[in-house]
Design brief:
The protein is an alpha+beta fold and about 1100 residues long. Helices cover about 20% and strands about 30% of the residues. Strands 13, 18, 21, 22, 23, 24, 25 and 28 form an eight-stranded mixed β-sheet that branches. Strands 1-2-10-7-8 form a five-stranded antiparallel β-sheet. Strands 3, 4, 5, 6 and 9 form a five-stranded antiparallel β-sheet that branches. The longest helix is centred in the middle third of the chain and has 22 residues.
Length: about 1100
Amino acid sequence: MLNPEPTESETAQPMDLQVHEANENEPAVEMSDAAAAVNPLSGEYTWTLKNFSACSGKVLSEPFEIGGYSWQLLIFPTGNNRTDALALYLAVAEDDQSAFNLQRCAHFKLSLLSRVEGGDLVKDTQHTFISGETDWGFTSFVPLAELQDPSRGFLVDDTIRIKVFVEVRVPQDLTYDSRKETGFVGLKNQGATCYMNSLLQTLFNINQFRRAVYHMPTSEDADPETSMPLALQSVFYKLQFTNSPVSTKALTSSFGWNTADAFQQHDVQELNRILCDKLETKMKGTRVEGMINKLFEGHTLNYLECINVDYKSTRQESFMDVQLDVKDCRDIYASFDKYCEVEVLEGDNQYNAEKLGMQDARKGILFETFPPVLQLQLKRFEYDVMKDMMIKVNDRYEFYDTIDLDRGDGKYLSAGADRNVRNVYRLLAVLVHSGGVHGGHYYAYVRPDGAQWLKFDDERVDKADQQKAIEDNWGGDDERLPPGGFGNTFRLTKHANAYMLVYVRESEWEAVMCQVTLGDISAHVQARLKAEQLEKERRKKEKAEAHLYTLVRVSTDNDFAEQIGTSRFFDLVDHEKVKTFKMSRKAPFSELRQLVAKDMGVPAELQRFWKWAKRQNGTYRPSLPLVVESEDQPISTVKESAPLRNTRPGVMTTLNLFLETPLSPGSTLPTLRPKLDVMLFFKHYCPDVQPPSLHYVGRRLVPKDTKIKELHPLLCGLASQNKTQGLEIYEEVKFEPNVMVERLAPSVTLAAGQLEHGDILIFQRQLSQAELSAMQCPTAKEFMIFVRNCQPVTFKALDDLQGEAVIQIELLNTDSYDDVSRALATKLGLDHPLKLRLTGQNHLTKLPKPQAIRYRQFESLQDMLMAGSYNQASVMRPPQPSILWYEIIDLPLPDYENLLSFRVSYHNSKLEEVSQHDVRVSKAASIHDLLEELRPMLPAEAHGTCPLRLMEVYQWKIWQLFDPRDRVDTIGDNAWHLRVEVVPEEEVELELGDMLHVHCLQVAEEAGNQRALACADPFIMCLGPEETVGELRQRVQQKLDIPDEEFASSWKPILCTFGGAEALADDMVVVSRLNCQKLYGHHDRNCIGFVRENKNLRRTHAHLNSKLTAWQGQEKQLKIRG
């Protein structure tokens, strides 16, 4: 019979009761391995439970193994928290429930078997089993009345049969599957490459473009990381045929980008142009030559036509995209109206018509042809002249599912345009930018089939409706209710809005969106990418089945001798570099012996294995001889002395063993007396050679009552030294976080010294006092400390971010700033060891960090490196090189840091910027000292004793005037624009406080803005207590030497306040409305503005910032070098 859909109470869930007495019944079981033979991660188990009516409480099946895990079935015959239904669960076997870091993901099917054909009751679910959720199933699997109904055939002879099918999965198999849900997959974000991902997904879904990329010729031997066409083909192939998010690392490598480029966000429009230009170049001379232009290229007609004489000039230009204004445009049609708007040149702006002289004229742009794929770039970012900064335009801007560019009787078309071509376009893609001018996130909405919208957001692809794809990306404001839903609504600006639109001509939709099949991909590219995919699938399968295997790593004396003194100094061995055997967890231990005998040449009878153990001090040593109960014992039962570790999908258990072999050929293994002997390992330190050397020389089972001095003959023999020579013997105790190598007293026994299996002794010859004084590392202890702290450092010049030239120096982690600076200065040939400033590196962007390292800010080189990049201490040698950036300075760093540097511009009495100057003064200096230091650099008019004043100007307003008596450190590090000027004679007495003054602004009015925006240099004017605005206005004209004609038609006075602007009459006295007495410092104050025409398209003040900008990560020019 058909199994009905489960109700809410029947859906899979954990059991409610935690403690029940197990039934003493011993049920018969049968196991099917048919499925497991096909897939080692799946299998079936059938449980036959007899004497069902006698069962009560919680009943568990015997443990069974499927997919490398041990499971049990769990039932409550009379219900779990209810008495009318049988509860059935799949549970982690009780012995495994306490496993450390338990995690198992499985899809499973529970079946109550019926004797009636087709009558089985089946329910399936999936779950991730973790600590606290070790069982999952159905509280109401079957009603008891139905179970006991003879016609159903479930309960026969007081026996029921339950079958479970389990398929173990890796955790990610249970996450969202973009391919399954949408038919498409995403692209991985390398750091800040979302802008590139959104563009690539858009281009991929222009099928004719994708086909053209596939048709580009590539070499079989080419490397995707150096061949941009092959890398793009690879990305498109994987987007089309694979099931997981696609990496773009090979593609960006082919662009010539490094890690820093991947963390630098660029403009998607700029990338689109550069990428298409590169592809067009690569396509030349191939069968797809001109395809980029065929898809995206249109033509405009620029015309200029005189009104009163017969003169007309035209010029045709091609375009790959159209830049449309957003500001002051209601929708896409308003933008096209503005784009094709006729400009009349008349008056002072007449056109010079060559021999016809200056003429009134009409100027404009019309379209001759539109391309099949029309790319519209919306000008969401623009430079605001009034604010002197880039801004993002978040205004509401409507665009539509279809647009008709033949509207208005073809008003966008030139007279020569082909009117038989219908310019009706259907929207294919919307690229969205969410954020502001300084950064944000890009994603794209695309409808590849022309109907269903999909959202491509890096790795994830989701279905979306038209509202989300179109209307929600118009921008503007969003009206919302306050928290709780009560009160007046408020408006929030939408910062996520459309940035680029891609339309396809309706009449060419089928051609542009053609089918792209495997036949479009060259055979060698298919073979390469299929091989990559097969390898990826193999690795995925291997990872999924990893928990079914144990990686046995067998180390020997030869491994110790090979590594110690070269790649390793502490402990004994790097287990990643020893002989490794991948074995089934069910394999008998005898199989390992056979493999070791075959591959390592050690007969089974001469093998003695030791287990390794991690000690409390962090060292890892052979600890105990391995004793197996039987040679048939499964390898999975051999564990290190560590907490119970759970086997998880994707994680292979590791077993490290040390293989003890006979000490000499032809001999046998020495007898091991567990309570009397200790296994010691020996290293020999030789300080006589340069550089000093450390070698592994062997191991021995030594009686515990042996004294240290009694080891001398043995050690001299191991090192081939004169046995009469005195020795110093040390114990290597630990190396983290600090090295501990302790000298052992000669008369102490091994037992008294608490030496145990796996301990390491380092010995050397005894040195004279003279030798101890002459050598850099005379003792093993000093040598091990030196090795532990040795740190190769790479130095890069801060003013050459892309430079290849580097300096590498081997230093010590314990070196001070002075030591590091001295070593680098010596390499650079500087005349002073501290004429350097160092900066750490950001380990993500691979760029310098924003702030330099201050002199002696850190106690050691290790602290300096950790401030810039992550460099984990390791027992390996050599450690990974760390990077510091340097800049050469003209003073020793302590003196340099005691100075403050400023860039100041000098303005004359007419407010004109005359010059810029860099000045450096002591932190203890006053503003007056700074001005006097600056005076000799200024023009002659500022020399002598005339008073100077310093002000900070921000957005063309006086932010503050600095008191000459204040210290220069009050200026701060973030002063925007510092301006110095001679104090006019009539303003010299201002600081006495008896005279009133006013800050004056030069402003321009902007339509729709209540505030007047400053647009040129501000200035200070004295103000009489009864002085009218008209009188002040006349003095301003005289001060700035403004011609009467200009002054009469403009320079209208207004009162500028925080709330807006207010017109002022000439006869008005405004002292009471101004803060006229507080001269120095920053104060919120009303100002008098003079409205004038702004003909000064101002430059920013950024050129006055004297700080080094290389480290700031400012946007670099986007380039594709592949």
